[in-house]
Amino acid sequence: MSVGLLFDSTKCIGCGGCTAACKEQNNLPLPIEPVTTAYTWTIVEKRDGAFVRRLCMHCLEPTCVSVCPVGALQKSASGGVVYDAGKCIGCRYCIMACPFGVPKYQWDRAIPVVGKCVLCPDRVKAGLATACATVCPTGATLFGDRDALAREARARIDAEPAKYVDHVYGLEEAGGTSVLMLSGVPFERLGMKTDVPRQPLPLLTWQILSKVPDFVILAGAFLFGLHWITHRRDEVRQAEEDER
Amino acid sequence: MRHSPDQHSPGEGASSDPVSPRRTTRVRRNILLNFVCVVACAVAAALGIGAGAATLRLPPDIAYDRSPDSPGPVIFSHVNHVALAPSTEGECTGCHPEPFKMLKPSRHVTHDEMNAGKLCGTCHDGKTASGVQDDCEHCHKARSQSGYSARTGGTP
Amino acid sequence: MSQALALRARNFRISFWQGIFVVLLLLFLGVTFVRFTRGLGAVTNLSDGFPWGLWIGFDVLCGVGLAAGAFTIMATVHLLNIKRFEPIVRPTLLTGFLGYVFVIIALMFDLGQPWRIWHALVFWNPHSVMFEVAWCVMLYTTVLMLEFLPIVFERLRLERPRRMLRFVSTPLVVAGVLLSTLHQSSLGSLYLIVPSKLHPLWYTPLLPFLFFISAVGAGIGMTFVESYLSQRAFGRHLEMTLLEPLARFMVVILTVYGLWRLRITQANGALAGLLHPGYEQWMFMLEIGLGVILPVALLLSRRIRNSPRGLVGAGFLAVFGFVMYRLNVSVTGMEATSGVHYTPSWMELVVSLGLLAIGMAIFAVAVRVLPIFPEPEGGPGAAGFGGDDAEAGLIEGEAAAPGR
After folding, report:
1. What's the CATH fold of domain C26-371?
2. What is d(CA C339, CA C337) in angstroms, rounded to the nearest whole number?
3. Which of the four, A69, A235, C100, C270, has the lowest number of CB atoms within 10 Å?
C-alpha cells in the first residue's frame, strides 16, 4: 500500500498544529518560520482568504530522487520521499530541480544537510498517521491510502461542486503525487505551481541519459575507426620506408 | 498573526471582548474568568454549530499527575485555552511544540518548573495570565470540565 | 633603447599584476576560512530560491567548457590526423587540465560537504545527470593528466614512462574525446529537468547538443586568446598559418550554433518577445549579438582573420558569448521563476577570481618550465602573434607552411 495525504484547504483554519507536530516529530529546532526552510518542513500559509499547507508533495516519480547523484533521496515503498543525510554530498541539485520548490538547505551550517518533509516514515511503519494528520483538529489533513484519498477527493468535489475548484491538485502534476490537495479558490491563487508538467520530469533527462552507453559504444568504435583510416597513409609510408 | 479576526474559529471571536475584566483584583478576576470561560465556551460551541463550521477535534481534557500534597486534581481544558488564551491567537503553535509537546505529552508538571517560567508558568506568570501561586482552586478543582470537550468531539 | 624600455615596462606590468594577485590570494584564503567554518550562507548570496550561483554557473560550467579546446584539437590532430595543428596540442592540453583542476577546486567550495565527494563513486544513481557529470569530471581529469604527463616526462627526461604512455595514447585520445563530449553535453542536460523554471529563451530539450557545440566554438576562441596572452607575456606563440584555418572552422561552428539557437527560440515562441525586450531579452541579445553574430561577422573578413588582433578580438568575443550562455542558463534564465534576485556576493567573486588567477599563475609557470609552446625560431617576437610583428609573422608563417 502506498500512503499519502489529502489536504482540503476549505477545512483548514490555519491553526498551525501540523507545523508544531512536525517540529516535534522530526526534532526540528524552533522557531517556526513563516516559510518552509531546512528547519521548518511544513507551514500553513494564508492566501486569498484561504489557508494552504506547504509541504513536500511526495511525487510518485520524484524529480529529486532522479537527480540525486548519490541516491540520498529515495521513494520509499510506503510512499514517502525519504532522505539519507549520511549520503548527501550537498550538490543541491534536488533544490534546483524540484518543480514544487520543496527541498531546503541548511545555509547557516558548516556541515549542512537538506531538509524536507519525509512523510513520517517511522510513524507510518508503526501503523500510525503522519504527525500533521494526527493532530489536525479539523481533519483538513487526512492520512490514508493514496488511491483511496484520490477517490475521496473526487467524491468531495462531486458532492459539493460549488464549494470546490474542480481539480485535485497532485493527481497528475509531475506525473502524480502522494499528497493531494483540494481548494475552494484557484490553485495558482494559493501560490501553488500550476505550470508543472503533467508527465514525470525524470523522463526528460532519462531520454538523453539512457543513450549514453549506446553513444560510448558507437562513437568509440567510430573514433577508433577514424584513427585507423586516417593513419593508414602513415603506415603505408612507414612500410615503403622499411622496404627501401 | 497570520490571519485577521474574522478568520478565527468562532470561539476566538467570542473571547476577545470579555478578557477586559481581568484588570480588577485577583480573586474577583479569577472568579470572573471562570464565569467568562464557561460563557465563552458555550457561545463558541453555539456559534460553531450555528455557522456549520468544521467541528474542532480538540484533545479531551487532560488530568495531570497528582502529587501527595496536591489540594485537588488539575484538569486542563483545550477548549478554554484555545478560546481564551490571547497569546496563542487561536493557533496551536502558541503552546506547541514548546512548552508542551503534542505527540508525546507529559502529564507531569511541578510548581518548581512553573515558577521557573516553564510549562504552564510560561504564560501563567501573573502578567500574561493568572499566576500559578495566586489561587489554588483556579487550577486544583474537584470537578471535571469534560462537559466542554464532549461538545467538541473529543480525541482524534 | 626601446628594448630596455619595453623590458622595464613589462617588469612593471608584471609587478602590478603580481600585487593584485597577492591581494586576491589573501582575500581568497580569508573567504575560504569563512566558507568552511561558517557555511555557504555566510559567504554566498545563495538561498533556497537560488541554490546554484556563480560557482556553478561560471567556475564549473565555464571551467569545463574552456577545456573544450583540448579535445577539439586532440581529435583534429590524432584522430583526423591533421598533423599541422600539432603545435597547438600542448597549450590546449594544459588549459584543459588546468580548467578541470579549476572545476574540481570550485566544486570543493560549492558542495555542501565536499569531503564526501567520493560518495559518487560508491553510491550510484545512473538516472542523475549529476552522477554522469561527476564521473566525467573524475575520468576526464585523469585522462587529461595522462595526456599531459608525457610533457612533464619529456622535461624530466624520463624516457621509459613516456614510452609507456605513448603506447596507450590512442585509447586515451578516444576516451578523452568521448568523455569530453559527454561532459560538455551533460552540463546542458543538467537543466533538462527544469522546463517550468528555465526561461523559454534558453530551455530546450536540445540543451546538451547546444552546450556541446558552443563549447567547441569557445574552445577555439580560447586557443586564440591563450596564444595571444602567451605572446605578450612570454614571447611564445602559435603561428598564424595554424590559427587562420581554425578561425574559418570557428566561423562555421558559430554560424551553425547561432542559427540553431535562433531556430529553437523561434520554435519556443520566444522570438517575438525580443521586440519588446525585458531583462532576459536584453541578456539574450547581448549573448547572441556580441558572442555569436559579431565574431562571425569579424572573422568573415579576410583581413581580420589574418590579423592577430582581429583573431584575439573574435576569440575573446566567442569566449564571452560562451560564458554568457552558461550564465544565462544558470542564472538569468532561472531568476524569474525563482522569485528572488541573485547577484553574487563579493566573496563569491573573490573565490572565482582567485581560482582564475591561480590557474593563470600555474599556466604562466608551466609555460616557463615545461616544453608547452614551440621554441620561437628567430628569437622572441620574430614570428606570428606580437602586435607590430604580425605582418612579418604572417609572411614567414605562410612561407613555412608548404614545407610541412
Report:
1. Formate dehydrogenase/DMSO reductase fold (1.20.1630)
2. 5
3. A235
Whether pLDDT at B13 is above 60: no
Mean pLDDT score of chain A, rounded to an integer? 94
Same domain? A60 vs A112: yes
Q: Is residue B63 part of a domain?
A: yes
Query: How many domains does one find in chain A?
Result: 2
> Is B93 contained in some domain?
yes
Interface residue C168 vs chain A (CB under 8 A): no
* Domain presence at residue B156: no
Range of the domain at A221: 211-243
Residue A221 in grid coordinates: 568504435
Range among B5-9, B27-31, B76-80, C376-380 rated most confident: B76-80
Q: With contacts defined as CB-CB under 8 Å, which chain B residues touch A49? A: 7
Amino acid at B142: A
Range of the domain at B40: 5-151
Share of residues in chain A with pLDDT > 70 (%): 100
A225 and A124 assigned to the same domain: no
Pairing of strands A3-8, A179-182: parallel
| Residues of A whose CB is below 8 A from B156 | 134-135
Q: Where are the domains of chain C?
A: 26-371
Q: How confident is the model at residue C5, as a pLDDT?
A: 58
Strand partners, A177: A59
Spell out the residues 6+ positions from residue C238 whose beta carbon is closer than 8 angstroms to its own: C87, C88, C91, C223, C227, C373, C384, C385
Name the grid cell of C25.
590570494
Q: What is the pLDDT of residue C217?
A: 93
Q: Is C173 on the interface with A (CB under 8 A)?
A: yes
Taking alpha carbons only, the member of C124, C130, C104 closest to residue C186 is: C130
CATH number at residue A84: 3.30.70.20
For residue B24, being part of any structural domain is answered with: yes
Nearest to A137 among B56, B97, B98 (CB): B56
- What are the cell numbers at C79? 584522430
Q: Rounded to an integer, what distance in angstroms lies between the CA atom of residue C301 and that of residue C286? A: 22
**Identity of residue C365:** V
**For chain A, where are the alpha helices, taking DSSP H only?**
17-25, 63-67, 93-97, 121-125, 131-135, 146-159, 202-209, 212-230, 232-243
Beta partners for residue A7, in sequence order:
A141, A181
Q: Is the pLDDT of residue B138 over 50?
A: yes
CA–CA gap between residue A149 and residue A143 (Å, rounded): 8
Please give the order of strands across the beta sheet that includes A179-182.
A141-145, A3-8, A179-182
Q: Looking at the structure, do residues A228 and A136 belong to the same domain, yes or no? A: no
CB contact under 8 A, B54 and A15: no
A108's enclosing H/E stretch is none
For the stretch B30-88, pLDDT in tens is 444 444 444 444 444 444 433 333 467 888 888 888 888 888 888 888 888 887 776 66
Mean pLDDT for all residues in chain C: 86
Query: A175 pLDDT exceeds 60?
Result: yes
**Percent of chain C scored above 90 by pLDDT?**
57
Q: What does the alpha-carbon distance between residue C53 and residue C45 come to, in Å, rounded to a whole number?
A: 8
CA separation for the pair C87, C93 (Å, rounded): 11
**Which residues of chain B make contact with A24, given a CB cutoff of 8 A?**
96-97, 101-104
DSSP string, C60-109: IHHHHHHTHHHHHHHIIIIIS--GGGHHHHHHHHHHHHHHHHHHHHHHHH
Alpha helices per DSSP H over C111-206: 119-122, 129-156, 159-167, 169-189
Closest-approach residue (CA) in chain B for A50: B7
Q: Which candidate, A15, A32, A13, A33, places its Cα nearest to that of A24?
A: A32
Which of B17-31, C67-81, C83-97, C175-189 has maximum average pLDDT?
Answer: C175-189
Nearest chain A alpha carbon to B4: A49
